[in-house]
């Protein structure tokens, strides 16, 4: 999902004016004469089966009210006047990346969501609001939440139970602060490290992605009955399907090179690699919502050159996902995704609805969407049966979440946000994700008595080690969240530590050097290689390796990055090399393995290339000759 602030202030201003004007033009209660729902209405009876409640409520709704349920607006568009939730009969509101309340605290979030919910409950039928947020590695928009390693690091743990527990904690912290719905997990299969979303994928191997889909159980629980519990949220499997398998250079979105590009494939490959994770997501874990991808698919069977956007593919959204696989949740479009479809806005709306899209993330154009869809239905270009199907799916989720009985935030677990117990799980996740790639002379684990020289900016930068999707969409360097940096973790284990970000401090007398290299934060296509990014180490990182590893007898390098980087020429200079990924708030977990408090057990969730030109390279390729193969990882004892 994109960042709401990518629009200029002028456009947002115009959109807010349009929202207010159009809201009054969309009648929310035109239709049946029923002024409201009697207290005895079957849909208000929690003892009745969900299907019966959905049917009863659907039969009471006007066409305008149904279309409202299919509409999702950004909080930035309604915050100044939540009454627009009522007048537009909105079914959902979201926080995009960087879209946070002025009081970015647990109670600040809960108060904001409850304020919006109060507006939703003023509608004729009092249908509660569904609030969505990107909790992709913890409740990461909230300052003070527990921030876990990103998914590729979790893939390296090979620990499905830990992934389940991570997402249970994330669900608990998220729901305690208001939102009941998360746009996570990403179950894409990333096949090219040049993609700026690589860290959001568990692996290049669909089998490992499927193994880690315990994340869905952590979010939602074991059965639909668990959704109403305050430790669970509605999950979103994304991005359906093929977004990690797009061809480099195929993107037409701004300066992106691979994100939102085209998956050029035959159906057999697509089913084996890209579609495979969605089958257990639906049939085993009963995921409540799925987000179709920005990307397109171009079937080679009928010749390359006629790609179809996922939001327009009736074959994949309806025929395959809903009918063949059996998905009974609802589809939510990505940020203004339908705007990328051919034709005018009416054609874009009509195409996506008829393809099978159920709810529409139209952050700043909710009124226009409602008016357009209403006109399309009245003109007979969208069937009322398609509208009823979409709304029934959305209402089903709201009933299962228990929102009709408990619409406001259950703050029972609000004190657990960022608690020591939750952070301890995150620290263990960091330790289990560390992948030891070289260990000449058994340099690791380090001894606490050694004099340690630490170099590199990423050793002591919380924002860099958390990466993108941390407080803001792109993330940022600096002390942006509470937690422990890698340097602080090292200092917890050793008393004699010298730190020099640029390795300018004298190295004399040091027993071992630890150089922390890596990337600075990015998200989505902004991080695509070729869009201002490269897989190569920075000049500063190479200089630090050269200086420290030549001056100190024993030298360890840690890579803090969202994907493997090119270290082929630098590797001989190191005695030990560790992939530390993006560990999140608990950098002390890196030192837990570094000093032997925990053993190194992590294994690569991605193939490590010798050069950038080797990409894409994946396990099973012909002439497979990487620097480190998929699944590689040395072990140490505790």
Structure description:
By secondary structure, the chain is of the alpha/beta class. The protein folds into 2 domains: 52-401, Glycoside hydrolase, family 3, N-terminal domain (TIM Barrel, Alpha-Beta Barrel), CATH 3.20.20; 420-614, Glycoside hydrolase family 3 C-terminal domain (Rossmann fold). Helices cover 33% and strands 11% of the residues. The protein has 21 helices and 17 strands. It has helices at residues 9-23, 50-60, 63-69, 75-78, 83-87, 106-120, 151-157, 160-175, 206-211, 214-220, 267-275, 278-283, 314-325, 345-355, 366-378, 384-400, 420-433, 462-466, 486-493, 539-551, 588-594, and strands at 71-74, 92-95, 130-133, 181-182, 236-240, 262-265, 289-292, 296-299, 308-309, 330-331, 360-361, 435-439, 452-455, 497-500, 512-518, 554-560, 576-579. The strands form 4 sheets. It has a 6-stranded mixed sheet with strand order 12-17-16-15-13-14, sandwiched between helices. A 5-stranded parallel sheet has the order 4-3-2-1-11. A 3-stranded parallel sheet has the order 5-7-10. Helix 14 (345-355) crosses helix 15. Mean pLDDT is 94; it is low at 4-35. Keywords: Glycosidase, Hydrolase, Signal. InterPro entries: Cellulose_Degrad_GH3, GH, Glyco_hydro_3_AS, Glyco_hydro_3_C, Glyco_hydro_3_C_sf, Glyco_hydro_3_N, Glyco_hydro_3_N_sf. Residues 62-396 form the Glycoside hydrolase family 3 N-terminal domain.
